[in-house]
Amino acid sequence: MGRYDRTDLGAYSLGLLEAAEAARVERHLAACPDCREEVRGFEAVRGLLDHLVQAKSTEDRPAPRQPPAVLP
Question: Locate the Putative zinc-finger domain: which residues (predicted)?
Fold first, then answer.
């Protein structure tokens, strides 16, 4: 991956990389089964988190609590 940084795999999985960086990661993934497996793991976790966020957003939410009074 050129200047290799494993955090790029997580950022790639989240779609946070610029196009050139994403292309660099994809070239590396084409040749590295270990990193492909790591990205699959990130994507599985992301899918679970997306599901939880969607489920939470459809629940009825209680009214927001008032912040506690600040003592003088």
Answer: 9-36
